[in-house]
Amino acid sequence: xxxxxxxxxxxxxxxxxxxxxxxxxxxxxxFNELNEKYDYFIETLEREELCEFIDEALRTIGYNPKGDITxxxxxx
Length: 76
Prior knowledge:
Layout: H1 2-10, H2 17-37, H3 44-60
């Protein structure tokens, strides 16, 4: 999450939709890998909290996600 937040903090101009999705995809794939490596520790509560954290972080840079922005890549 730290690297995700650092990337968002470095954004000076809001990227286009494609750029935002690329950033989200990267963090979701990293969580997929961690989840698999550590015996599928991400369950419903953790998933909801992670998704909300990602949404809130995106809102801080002025992007308002519609729906579950992680769903396309999420395996947890």
